[in-house]
């Protein structure tokens, strides 16, 4: 079919479809209300949709089906929805590689041909060898929702431990591959979350949980994590318990082993920040774990051992982090030797390779990388191609060549080979993406928040964009958990940019862009600063005429979903469209599900009165008011999200549909066999297409394709 005939055929179909207008009032599914009322410190709080927390009930299943029916009926009437999906599919269709990583005589890397649901892991002998498939996750399930990750290598480099997850759940199963034969061994380690396999001799250490009760696998609180040692070939039932602490059921434990297999390092945390570090001499039979750095008011981690001393990254007495050398026989901080002192820039990450130290600093959310000797003597700053984000630089002690990646908003992720001795970088793999970066410009501005704090924001758009207040704008942020939002390329953003949209990303307090002081300024009782920062970002974009309230969409996921839920209830007049994804919406009960208890160090808990008063003041679920016109809202979640359970989104949208006064649609899109993020490429394209179509339709945009 010629392009002209194809276009005419599409137009004929579109004119035959009933058109959905943004102003139409939608008939939402009826949601039954219960009589549940909780008492928090003499404050009565109704929770009429508590029954939606039971994601396995027949009633909840019917509700999900009814909600999805209304949502997809709305979405299918958007005339350019299919065009957006087609364009996204076209953009995503280019080969994407990970950096190669040397394991003995082999190099391992992953590659996605473009539209494969999962990246395939390849192995080759040497850098000049022929790549062969080590494991193809796409062959493991009909729907492509089984994911594979490399989580550890044996000391003799014969074996690789892999994690195998299904349908987007955080639960994983550890298995073992023999690299030379590519065969999978019979070992099966179940009920792990966020665990590496740290090899020692003929087995490995891992962190695991007890098997959850049937039917509660995706919602039950995860408690009593333990550390085990698995001997290769043994059934899991024979694994030796290495560490547990029944007195503290709500702690995370992760164990790492030094490259020389001399030391084990146990990291203990009571949540998503604050650690305690223990060590054990594996060369001494019967040795016990000994305290290295007491917790939990700081974050510390062992980078490597230098002989019998430990190189440690810590923010103890250094909010921007420093590197110190610690003698485990004299671990008190007054005995520490400073290797790299704290700087005005945040020390984001440190790694070793080839007997050298590679350190990543953040300068206004952009990466700067330096090479040092293990004694802290500067070798060189590594020249990066532009302002943006670099990652990698890890390796073994005998490496002479390592790899890193660089990316920015208009710079697709490119892999570089780095010669440690000379500091020479050269492009190893550069992707071919179907767009011209020269058509767009990236700027970083600094705006004032409510309390006059200067906050950075990246703004990306077409060159020559008219600042007339009529441009659709997509504003996103995160603002929490010490996570830094750095420049990165996303093929999906091309759809927005080529259609005249402004893409903006703000670096809110609560993140890690300026160290622990910046983090603490947006957590616990200061969480409102995060929302104020984001509202100020929107006001800046409107004031400077990049956009207007009638053209502005706000989006965020997880803690960023909480952000969107909070700001749309605090300033519903400021935004035209809200896209909260997998958000933490019920701040009074989040800690009662799966790993939610670990976020109490960030948010506080409703079990404490002061925290309760703070949480209920901004909890998205509890701040929806009757009679208010809220923005057009598309909430997204998934049935296998066992990190932020879908009940958050379920209860939020049920309340929003009940109380919405205006005609703007308030809908929920519930994905199946997916989790805290899309479980495969197909689902990622479909969900992104729906979010973008919803956004553009409700701001009155007309994308240049049908």
What does this structure look like?
- With 706 residues, the chain is an alpha+beta fold.
- It has a domain at 26-90 and 435-698: Rossmann fold (3-Layer(aba) Sandwich), CATH 3.40.50.
- The protein contains eleven helices and 40 strands.
- The strands form nine sheets. The protein has an eight-stranded mixed sheet with strand order 33-34-36-35-37-38-39-40, with helices on both faces. Strands 3, 4, 5, 6 and 7 form a five-stranded antiparallel sheet that branches.
- β13 and β14 (203-208) form a beta hairpin.
- The longest helix is centred in the N-terminal third of the chain and has 19 residues, at 58-76.
- It is globular.
- It starts with a helix and ends in an 8-residue tail after the last helix.
- Mean pLDDT is 95; it is low at 1-21.
Spans of at least 5 consecutive residues with low confidence: 1-21
Rg measurement, Å: 26 Å
| CATH top level label of one domain | Alpha Beta
Question: At CATH's second level, what is the architecture of one domain?
Answer: 3-Layer(aba) Sandwich
Mean pLDDT: 95
What spatial form do the alpha-carbon principal axes imply?
A: globular
Give me the number of helical elements.
Answer: 11
Let me know the largest β-sheet: 8 strands, mixed
